[in-house]
Write a structure and sequence with these properties.
Keywords: Fatty acid metabolism, Ligase, Lipid metabolism
Strand order of the largest sheet: 4-3-5-6-7
Protein name: Acyl-CoA synthetase
Largest sheet: 5 strands, parallel
Oligomer: single chain
Radius of gyration: 25 Å
Low-confidence stretches: none
InterPro entries: AMP-bd_C_sf (IPR045851), AMP-binding_CS (IPR020845), AMP-dep_synth/lig_dom (IPR000873), ANL_N_sf (IPR042099)
Mean pLDDT: 92
Family: Belongs to the ATP-dependent AMP-binding enzyme family.
Structural class: alpha/beta
Number of strands: 25
Number of helices: 23
Strand content: 15-25%
Catalytic activity: a long-chain fatty acid + ATP + CoA = a long-chain fatty acyl-CoA + AMP + diphosphate
Shape: globular
């Protein structure tokens, strides 16, 4: 404990007084010409990317801060932001903070009623929206948001409506205000302190209305310092921003961490273009929630499946050497000369080429979080020589509070406590943590805050976990999501689901069985792998639903379920299952914006399917 507190004091001294405003000013002075933010070039422009340097970015931030000041943004007041990941998103957020305000990114998948709640709860004075698609989500509730002033639109500001302002006009207002009185903006940003709230993020709302989590400059810079120690990444590196800034991981990794590491952030505005963006950028670091890693694996498997058998055999042999190398590199293991030699040979012959093909040839840190990564997925990337390591945390802990590092990892765990962070396991198995990463509580929710943080400052995660003798933690499942069967057995649905998803034909899985005699599963067919799998076997089909009902597909999935059951205890084994010819997404409401299962939604939406598995 003394060592933990000593490290904590060291980091606290390192970040003492640090604010986003001061950090951006320092960075613009040290690396004025370093590339900061790159957006995809406009079609037919001949430009692949449009780039701002750190000096240019800070100048734009000051103009935006002056614009908000001119519109009347007060100290501590909030600016709601909804748009895709692009430089304007970061600049608007930083501009609000430099003006003394608070940035609040809202999930673009939120329903109008959720937007109304969040905007009202955070007290949004202004909103910055990307375009017509975002406005369409706000439009039904705009008349009920009495505290909202101007709505600034990057594109498509409705003409003749005084509530709206075009982004170009807003920037012009800021430039004029900054030129007329630069000292006023400087006074505002100098008044910002490390203890001020820098952002309010809202939980993605698997049940009920989302809860607001205020985070301070100190919170985020402690997380940045801890992440920097874990990753040991160089300055002036490259990375891709593609997850929403309403997600704590993206906000830390591609908004606040670059302000310390002077990273060059490339924006991927559409997840469908992530593969191409990876190939162009070849980032030094990459974070993906499990579903992102699963989808990339599925695409690569589909490509490999189309190669001649001789080539496939060579890849399998090379990947065996890759897996052995990554497994031997774990904490407490040893990479023998034989394992090293086999890996070097495989890497030179094939693995390096495959990593280059998917844009990971320069990656020094690849990580996952938000939900358990299936072991089959982790092993697949290990076969390519990639350590896709788990970190664990939540919005309420400013992101990760445990993590593996490239130099100290154990596969299948979420790593050790981050520097200066206390973690313990309660008598009922719940993971608790205490550190400067913890939020002070939920916005406007004192009762929920009392449930979250106890009198001794321990934050209750709601997750059941375990720890081994070397201090590596494992997360079993959400405390409230454990299945209790009719026989009184406690079962983790996530463990069942991860085994089921190891077959490439199965895209998503939900295990069910609360107060029932045995577990059942609702499965979805993988829309990217299944067509190629069918084509290779001469199966014709007109739709995914038709393919999901094909006897050969059902036989293959039955074998996959049987294989999963062999790795599960008897009480965990799936007795019956159904395969859906569709995908679950955030847009169709089965997944949260961070791509985790909305169990209650799925239970309700597919209640007849689930009931049929028990009655039929």
């Amino acid at each position: 404990m003394a060592e933990v507190l000593e490290v904590r004091a060291e980091i606290e001294q390192q970040i003492a007084g640090r604010t986003v405003c001061g950090q951006l000013a320092e960075l613009a002075e040290r690396h004025p010409d370093a590339p900061a933010y790159s957006d995809p070039g406009e079609p037919d422009s001949g430009e692949d990317w449009r780039t701002l340097t750190y000096a240019e970015a800070r100048r734009r931030v000051l103009e935006i801060a002056a614009g908000f000041a001119a519109l009347g943004l007060g100290r501590g007041e909030s600016v709601a932001i909804m748009m895709v990941n692009r430089s304007e998103h970061v600049l608007a957020d930083l501009g609000a903070v430099h003006a003394g305000g608070v940035g609040c990114t809202i999930y673009s998948t939120f329903a109008p009623e959720q937007i109304e709640f969040v905007a009202g709860d955070v007290g949004a004075r202004f909103a910055v929206l990307g375009g017509p698609a975002e406005l369409a989500r706000w439009q039904p509730v705009l008349d009920r948001l009495g505290g909202l002033g101007k709505i600034i639109m990057l594109e498509g500001a409705p003409a003749g409506d005084e509530r709206f302002m075009a982004w170009a006009d807003f920037l012009e207002l800021g430039r004029a205000r900054l030129a007329a009185d630069p000292a006023a903006v400087e006074e505002r940003l100098r008044a910002v302190t490390a203890g001020d709230v820098v952002t309010v993020l809202y939980t993605s709302g698997t049940t009920g209305m989302p809860k607001g989590v205020p985070l301070t400059h100190t919170n985020v810079f402690y997380e940045v310092a801890a992440t920097d120690r874990l990753t040991a990444l160089p300055t002036l590196g490259t990375q891709i921003s593609y997850l929403t800034y309403a997600h704590i991981a993206e906000r830390i990794l591609s908004l606040y961490l670059p302000l310390v590491k002077a990273s060059h952030v490339y924006f991927c505005t559409d997840l469908a273009n992530l593969g191409a963006t990876l190939g162009q950028v070849r980032p030094m670091m990459f974070f993906g929630v499990p579903r992102v890693w699963e989808k990339m694996m599925a695409r690569l498997l589909a490509v490999l499946a189309g190669q001649p058998e001789e080539q496939q055999a060579a890849v399998r042999e090379a990947m065996a050497a890759g897996r052995a190398y990554v497994e031997a590199g774990q904490y407490g293991h040893t990479i023998t000369p034989e394992i090293q030699a086999a890996y070097d040979k495989a890497d030179a012959a094939l693995l390096g080429l495959i990593r280059g093909m998917i844009g990971f040839d320069r990656a020094q840190w690849t990580a996952t979080g938000a939900a358990p990564l299936p072991s089959e997925v982790q092993n697949f990337y290990a076969g390519l020589g990639l350590k896709v390591i788990d970190v664990y945390g939540m919005t309420e802990t400013t992101g990760a509070f445990t993590g593996n590092s490239p130099a100290c990892y154990r596969l299948g765990t979420v790593g050790r406590a981050e520097p200066g962070v206390e973690v313990r396991i309660a008598e009922d198995g719940e993971l608790l943590t205490r550190s400067p990463l913890n939020t002070l509580g939920y916005l406007n929710r004192p009762d929920a805050t009392t449930e979250l943080i106890d009198a001794d400052g321990w934050l209750h995660t709601g997750d059941i976990g375990s720890v081994d003798a070397d201090g590596f933690y494992r997360v079993v499942d959400r405390k409230k999501e454990l299945i209790i069967t009719a026989g009184g057995e406690n079962i983790s649905p996530a463990e069942i689901e991860n085994h089921l998803k190891q077959h490439p034909l199965i895209g998503q899985a939900l295990a069910y069985g609360d107060l029932r005699p045995y577990p059942v599963a609702v499965l979805t067919i993988d829309a990217e792998v299944a067509p190629g799998w069918a084509q290779a076997r001469g199966i014709t089909f007109g739709s995914l639903a038709e393919l999901a009902a094909h006897p050969d597909v059902l036989k293959e999935v039955e074998s996959a379920v049987e294989a999963a059951n062999t790795r599960l205890a008897r009480v965990q084994q799936v007795k019956k299952w159904a395969l859906l010819g569709t995908e679950w997404t955030a847009e169709t409401e089965e997944l949260t914006p961070s791509l985790k299962l909305k169990r209650r939604i799925i239970h309700a939406k597919y209640a007849d399917v689930i009931e049929g598995l028990y009655s039929g």
